[in-house]
Amino acid sequence: MDKTMLAFALNREGQEPLYNQLKRHLARQIENGILAPGDRLPATRDLAEQLGVARISVVAAYEELKVEGYITSQIGRGTFVAERSPGDLDVAPLVGAMSPRDATLRELLSLADRPNVINFSHGIPADSFLSVSLIREALDAVLTRDGASAIAYEAPEGYLPLRELVARRAANLGIDVTAGEVLITGGCQQALDLAVQALLKPGDVLLTSNPTYTGMLDIAQARGVTVLGVPVDAEGMQTADLEDLIVQHRPRLLYLAPTYHNPTGSVMPLHRRRHLLDLAGRYRLPVLEDGVYGELRYTGEPPPPLKALDEHGLVLYASSFSKVLLPGMRIGYLLAGGGLYQRLARVKRAADICTPALNQRAIHLALESGQLDEHVSQVRIACRQRRASMLDALSQDFPEACWAPPAGGMYLWLELPTGGPTSTELYLHAVRSGVAFAMGPLFYTDAQGRHHLRLNMSAYPPDTIQEGIKRLSAAWRELAAGYVSTDQASSVPFL
Ligand SMILES: Cc1ncc(COP(=O)(O)O)c(C=O)c1O
Fold first, then answer.
1. Pocket test for ligand 1, best of 262, 267, 330 (most atoms within 8 A of CB)
2. First to last CA, the chain
3. Does 355 contact ligand 1 (Cβ within 6 A)?
4. What are 362-373's pLDDT values in tens digits?
């Protein structure tokens, strides 16, 4: 290979670690075809020497490129550009081209799905929580009761009795809506996507908490929307600098999950909710509230949803029944009023005509009979136990890390000591040690979160959680012993 290809201009003074710069340069050369499929990359020792960096920087860059599918290595033969890199698409690219972040996420999940890996990385409820018999009975009953209408097209806005029921349940949260303001969607994900499509055009700015739900980053990318992150602390999205951001960037939408935030688990206190709504009202900024984890409450009572406090008619509320049992049924909803509702219904019709009638009707029946709520309360008890096990296991086995016990939701957001391995470095080692998690940078708009990771608290029973945390802390300790950060390592060749 022509060595000039690898003559990167590495910035040794800047904030970005050298391994990351190296990784970026190599990924770009692969995407641009300068490095072609099958090209052999230099050995890590040779490249480190050529660039005057520590070998560990090259090793870390190669490891991440492997995870992201850019390169492969063959024992005894060397490292090669993969036959298909993440940038290679047979179809027209999405508005925002597929980014390495997407590829990382997919690769991350597939690595963690190896047998014997205790996988805390997913954002889904445990299979054992999904009540097959309950849904089987509901589906049977609906087909017997409704016959062909259960498998015909439904109204684009949704099955009316379900919309009425959703409106009644929203009233329990203090949200005052009629069935005419309830749009049934294909899960909460589609509710978010419809809101983005109805309110933004490509190039518009979307404000979101930073970190945020990765699915919203995917939507923004697919729709060509510019995402701007608002920092988060233990009390959720910080509102102190929000006004400056609004004035400076003129966003068209603000997205957040104020209760049991994914990934941090934080709950935004009432005073912040009011401040945020005050700003939204002053600048006529629509707010998209994500309430998908609302039912998974373990301690304390969260403040009312933003939608319940909204005096300006600016809040859209998105949620679903996925996190409380039924992710594959794909039933969610969006609460919105006024002319916006009609626009959302039109976008929904264009997207998929309607949400499946059978699933809507089955969920409606299971809800109306009270069986679903009964099941959810059982699941909540199990989740509370699992959360307690994870907190115990962390206190006992991983005192070097920091976390705030989440009052609800599915996730625990863990902070690793800053001087030690990053979550990405740890991930690769942890999977080999039989445990996986979601790496912090996946959730950020700007590659922060290097020392954070997200753990799904509800995925396993208590003894497996304990074993998983043991493996995690052991993996961290092995890597932390003698660890030299890639930042410091740049001046220490051949580590
Ligand atoms: C914050 C948040 N919103 C929305 C969703 C999507 O939910 P659904 O499965 O209902 O589409 C998820 C799923 O992980 C989520 O974490």
1. 262
2. 25
3. no
4. 999 999 999 888
